[in-house]
């Protein structure tokens, strides 16, 4: 009986702490969240081109195949104690090279939850030998969440004869082979425009 009473007291204490936390939780700033959402949505690829040509440092050309693009919006993902409701949005796009066996996936998301937020996740995969790594850029803190890459937001980047505005330069801190991806350039509204390997070979999108 005494053990049961103690258990009830513990459960009541946990419930009380949870309710207190809910009361103290600030209401959602919907104006700011909507502003952030619109800014993040600008990073999805605007065109529907299924392939582009890439040329490396040795003037060898191949195809960058673009596919698996999708965009989803959910009306109700988070509701606060004030009755405010904010949805969530996510966007996916995949890239694969025709010769180099290198694949990329980009996932852009926007939510009001503490653990997520407004993010761009880049995953790089090489099939032979198999190597895979990912890093996530936080648009609010303007840095990598995993601390495994240095991410810079550049105003302009010149690739061959093309100038791109607002570009994320994602440089992984660790590479596991000479042909492992070291740096990726992702332009707002355009997508991947350049990537570099650990051996210094640079692939530019034409």
Draw up the topology in text.
Layout: H1 2-24, H2 30-41, E1 51-55, E2 61-79, E3 85-97, E4 102-110, E5 118-127, E6 130-138, E7 143-144, E8 149-159, E9 162-172, E10 181-187, E11 191-197, E12 202-205
Antiparallel strand pairs: 1-2, 1-12, 2-3, 3-4, 4-5, 5-6, 6-7, 8-9, 9-10, 10-11, 11-12
Key traits:
206 residues, alpha+beta, 17% helix, elongated
Structural features, described:
This protein is of the alpha+beta class and about 210 residues long. It has one domain. It is built from 2 helices and 12 strands, in the order H-H-E-E-E-E-E-E-E-E-E-E-E-E. The protein has a 12-stranded antiparallel beta sheet with strand order 7-6-5-4-3-2-1-12-11-10-9-8, covered by helices on one side. The chain is elongated. The termini are far apart. About 5% of the residues have low confidence.
Query: If strands are numbered along the chain, what order do they take across the biggest sheet?
Result: 7-6-5-4-3-2-1-12-11-10-9-8
Count of helix runs: 2
How many E-type strands? 12
Give me the secondary-structure category.
Answer: alpha+beta
Strand/helix succession: HHEEEEEEEEEEEE
* Count of the domains: 1
In the predicted model, the low-confidence regions spanning at least 5 consecutive residues are 11-23
Measured distance between first and last alpha carbons? 76 Å
Task: Give me a quick take on this structure.
The chain has helices spanning 2-24, 30-41; strands spanning 51-55, 61-79, 85-97, 102-110, 118-127, 130-138, 143-144, 149-159, 162-172, 181-187, 191-197, 202-205. With 206 residues, the protein is of the alpha+beta class. It has one domain.
